[in-house]
Amino acid sequence: MNDPNYTPERRPIRSRELTASKRAGHWLAVRGVSPNAISVAGMVGGIAAGVAFAFAGRPGMERLAFIAAAVLIQLRLLANMLDGIVAVERKIASPVGELYNEVPDRVSDAAILIGAGYAVGSAPLLGALTACVALFIAYVRAEGKVAGAPQEFCGPMAKPQRMFVLTLCALYCGLTPLAWQPWLTIGGQRWGLMAAGLLLIIVGGLWTSVRRLSRIARALKQPSS
Prior knowledge:
Layout lengths: L18 H12 L4 H21 L6 H28 L5 H22 L7 H24 L11 H17 L8 E3 L2 E3 L1 H29 L4
Antiparallel strand pairs: 1-2
Helix pairs in contact: 1-3, 2-3, 2-4, 3-4, 3-6, 4-5, 5-7, 6-7
């Protein structure tokens, strides 16, 4: 049931305040587009980005697949931003809408990161581990909210930063000559830029989890007014 007085805690995104973003949200709202449909569309974009990354592991398809993955990641983030704008614009924000906001996000994260593990220069196990770290970061935030603390969106490797790293890696791999791309061989396994990006997300993600847990614990220890 929609509640016009319901105000969800939203991730602070600077681009949400841009005039272009507000106009796009208004354009969708006046045409009756559902914010939940936008959330699902973002999930489809995330899954497609993961598939594109997987195709980036096939000889002869790497460049186009990397560029497609980068574009699809940005479309997924655009949908993540617009669903909230449209919900507020149409005054139909609700707890059910938060489910549509959260669950597709987790599916998108997993699909993109697992797919990145199959790209050239990466490894499937690395993609799976990165997906687990991303899910744990979101889990910590959700548990903090359940315990009564404000939602923690701090980084350094929150969703926007994870997607930024992957987008940069994908664009570099897709647009630069092979001679410009770094390679490192360890134990017979060739590691490229995508592996480095995933490792950066893992390390930064673990630090993000520690920071969020610390801030949540501090908030919960504060005496209630």
